[in-house]
Amino acid sequence: MTRRKFLYFSSILLFIPVTNFTWKYFESRPLLYPETLCNLCDPIEIEKIGKKYLSKTPAERTKQRLAQLLLTDARGNDYSEANKIEIKKMIKQKIKDDFASFHTVTIDGWIISITEARQCALLSKNLN
Amino acid sequence: MHIDARELEDGSVISGDICIIGAGVAGISIALQWINTPYKVILLEGGGFEYDEKVQSLYDGKITGQKYYPMMSSRLHYFGGTSGHWGGLCSQFDDLDFSKREWVPSSGWPINKDDLLPFYNHASQILDLPSPNFSEEYWRKKYQSLPMPLDSSVIQHKVYQKSPPTRFGEKYKETIINADNIFLYTYANATELILTSDLNAIGSVITKNYTGRTHTIKADVYICACSALQNARLLLASNRQVSEGIGNRYDLVGRYFMEHLEIRTSKLFLNHANPFKYYRWHNNVSHEVKISDELQEKRQILNATMSFFPLEEEVNKKPNMSTWMYNDPRKSLQSYHKGSRSYIEGRARRIFLSGNFPSYEIYTRMEQTPNENSRLTLNNEKDSLGMPKVDLHWQFTSLDKKTLRESNLLLGQQLGGFEIGRLKFNDFLADEDDPSMPDTISGGWHHIGTTKMNSDVKKGVVDKNCKVHSVNNLYIAGSSCFPTAGSVTPTLTVVAISLRLSNHIRMMYENKQSLNLNQRIRSK
Predict the structure, then answer these.
(1) ipTM associated with this complex
(2) What is the pLDDT confidence band of residue A20, given thresholds at 50, 70 and 90?
(3) Of A92, B187, B273, B288, which is the most buried if we count CB atoms within 10 A?
(4) Chain B: residue whose CA lies nearest to A107
(5) How far is CA B335 from the centre of its chain?
(6) From the CA atom positions of chain B, what is the Rg in Å?
C-alpha cells in the first residue's frame, strides 16, 4: 500500500468516530438537536437549513437570542434554569404546538417547525 | 345491430328516434339504457372495433400554451373509446365540487351531488366497481384498517375504487350489436350538424369515412358523446348556418378546457418506516388524502387529493408528460410503462419483503381553475375528411400553483404535528414567490369543460339537463359539460351524468313531449 493510500484510508476511518462523537455531543444538548430532522438529514443539510434560516431572520442572528427563543415555552415560561430532560420535553411539545398552529417555515423545501429551524440555526452557529 | 358505414351506399339517409354521436364510455352507457325500448337508437362511432391509424389521425391537432400530450394519442378513436386504455380509477365528486365557491371563478353547477347519486350507483355497476359505496367509514369497518391519525378538520380521506378496468369495447360489444333497436354504425365520423331552417333544432348529422362515403342521419334527438375535445370541435365546425358554430352565441364553446393536474409535489420522510396500507390498493379499494372543505375555503384553494408512493419505486420514474409523447397512443402507452420500471421493482420488493418504506413520494391530483383562456379553437387546417382541425391552448392560473403548494404545506404541517415525519417540497414548489409551472406537470388525460353547464345562456353552453341552450333537440353527454373538474378521476361521474341525461330524455318521451317534437322536425 502506498503512503498516500494509507493516509487516505486512515482519514476515512478517523472521520467516522469524529462525526459520531460530534453528533452525540449535540444530542445531549437539546437546544442544538432537532431530533427528528437529525434522524432524517445529514449534518450538512442541518447546517444548511440553519444558515438559511439565519439569513431570513436577521433579528435572531445571535446565539443568545436564539437560545432565549428556544428556552421560552408557548405560554412564555422561561426554561433557562430547567434541566436537560425538562428542556427536551418542552422543546418537543413546542414543536408539536408549532405545527398545530401553522407556525412553520419552509427552508430548502423542508416544512419544519419554527422551533426546529431555530435549533438548526443555533447548531450551525456552534459548528462554526 | 351493426353496420359498417364503409360498406353503406354513399348518400344513404338513416332515420331514427335518438342519435348518439360517439360510442365511448358516455355513448355506450346511454345506449345500454335504451335496449328493449320501443325506440330506434342510432349509435355512431367514427372508428371500428380495433385501432385504425387512418381514423386515429382524425384526432390530430396542435398544442399551444402549456405542454400537453399529443392530441392524436390522448384519446382512442374506436368502439369503446378511451376505455380501451384507461387505468380504472374511480371516485365520486365531493358536494363541494358542485357548489358555488366565491374564490373559484365560474364555479358552481346548476345541479348538486344529490341529483347524481342515484346515477352514481348505477354507474358503479356499469364500471364493475366493488361497491357503489364510497363512504370512508364503510370501508374502514369492512377492512379494519386505519388512516394516519391526523386532524380531520384539516385532512380528510377520499375513497377510490378500481374498475378491472372495464373495456367498454370488449364488454358491451355483443350486447349492443345484439340489441334489436340499437343500430351501431362504425366508420361513421360526424363531421357536421345541420340545423333546421328556423335554426332552433338539429335536422340532421353528416357522417363521413375514409372510403369517401357520406351519409345523413336524421333523428328526433341528438346526443353528442364524442369526448370533450370532439364535442366542442363538432359544434364549432358546424358553422355553415351560424358562423360562430352551434350553441356558441356567447363564445363559450371550447372555452374552460380543464385537466387534472397530476404531479409529484413533495417527499415524505417518516420517523418510522410504514407500509401505509390504508393508502395502498387492497381488494380494489384505496384512499387518498384531501384538505377539508372548510380549510379550502379559508385558504382560498382548489380541491386536491394526495397519494403516497414509496420513494424507491418512484425515484427513476419519469413524469407522464415526458413518456407519453408519441402520436400513436400504443407507442405512448409502451413508453409510459417503460418509464415505470422502478415501480415494478419496488412492487416486487413489497411482495417479498415487509413492504415497510421509510419515505414516500407524494402525488397531487387537483382540479384546475376554470379559465376561459384555456380553450380549444379551430385552426385553418383540415383533416382527411375535410373537418377543421383544432388548437388546444392549455393554460393555468396562479390559483393552480397556490393550491399545489398550500395543500402540501397543510399536509406537511399535519404530518409534523403528529410526529409522523417531515415533508419536503419538490424543487418547483420550494420558492413560494415563483409562479412558474414546470413542463413536467402532467394531466390525467381527462378532458373537461368545453361545453360547460350553466342555467344562464350567457354563462354556459348546456343547461342543467345537458341540453344545448337555444337548440331544442341537441344534448351533450360527458365531461365537456362539467363546470368544474373535481379533484378525482372523472370517469364515474361521466357515466353518472350520461345516465342522468338518458333518464331525462326517456322521461321526456314518456311524457309525450317528443310527439310535438317529431311533428316539428319532420315538417321542416
Answers:
(1) 0.86
(2) very low
(3) B187
(4) B430
(5) 22
(6) 23
Pick A40's closest partner by Cβ from B269, B417, B432.
B269
Range B415-436 average pLDDT: 94
Q: Which residue has the higher pLDDT, A31 or A25?
A: A31
- Distance between CA atoms of residues B314 and B426, nearest Å: 13
Q: Give B48's contacts (C-beta < 8 A, 6+ positions apart).
A: B4, B55, B78, B79, B186, B187
Average pLDDT over residues B305-313: 91
Name which of B408, B417, B426 is nearest A99 (Cβ-Cβ).
B417
What is the DSSP code string of B357-425?
EEEEEEEEEEPPPP-TTSEEEEEEEE-TTS-EEEEEEE---HHHHHHHHHHHHHHHHHHHHTTSEEEEE
Q: Do B419 and A96 touch (CB under 8 A)?
A: yes
In angstroms, what separates the C-alpha of A93 from chain B's closest C-alpha? 9
Cell of B178: 345484439
Is residue B256 within 8 A of residue B475, CB to CB? The reply is no
**Predicted local distance difference test score (pLDDT) of residue A23:** 58
More confident position, B24 or B142: B24
Q: What is the pLDDT of residue B36?
A: 96
Provide the strand spans (E) within B163-250: 182-186, 189-195, 202-208, 214-218, 221-224
